[in-house]
Amino acid sequence: MAKTSSVEKNKRRAKLAKQYAPKRARLKAIANDQSLPPEEQFAARLKLAELPRNSSKTRIRNRCELTGRPRAFYRKFKLSRVALRDLASTGQIPGMTKSSW
């Protein structure tokens, strides 16, 4: 089980990213628009840099929903490999069985 503080910090990052997403997208569009004058593009980049760092989507870490484990994460199930195997072995994931040959 991951530290609760790490999991909560990641949740705060996700909340901030969702909150600032429209503003960030608008500023990025202005900064990358080649038809605008360079001064406007630069001003948009400065405003983008003033936003909180944790409001960036890339700062969010994929974590297991059950354990909070940050590594070996399966996006399809939003679980780590350890939790996925436990649930699959007990038959709690429909259609998934442990392979044997």
TrEMBL record:
GO annotation (BP), single: translation
Keyword Ribosomal protein: yes
Any one Gene Ontology molecular-function term assigned to this protein's record: rRNA binding
PROSITE patterns named among the record's database cross-references: RIBOSOMAL_S14 (PS00527)
Pfam families, sorted: Ribosomal_S14 (PF00253)
Gene Ontology terms: cellular component: cytoplasm; small ribosomal subunit
Keyword field: Ribonucleoprotein, Ribosomal protein, RNA-binding, rRNA-binding
Region described as Disordered: 1-21
SUPFAM superfamilies on file: Glucocorticoid receptor-like (DNA-binding domain)
Compositional bias annotation for Basic residues: 10-21
PANTHER family tied to this protein: 30S RIBOSOMAL PROTEIN S14, SMALL RIBOSOMAL SUBUNIT PROTEIN US14M
Family classification: Belongs to the universal ribosomal protein uS14 family.
Function text: Binds 16S rRNA, required for the assembly of 30S particles and may also be responsible for determining the conformation of the 16S rRNA at the A site.
NCBIfam families referenced in this protein's UniProt entry, alphabetically: PRK08881.1 (NF006477)
Quaternary structure note: Part of the 30S ribosomal subunit. Contacts proteins S3 and S10.
Name this polypeptide is given: Small ribosomal subunit protein uS14
Lineage: Bacteria, Pseudomonadati, Pseudomonadota, Alphaproteobacteria, Rhodospirillales
Gene symbol of the encoding locus: rpsN
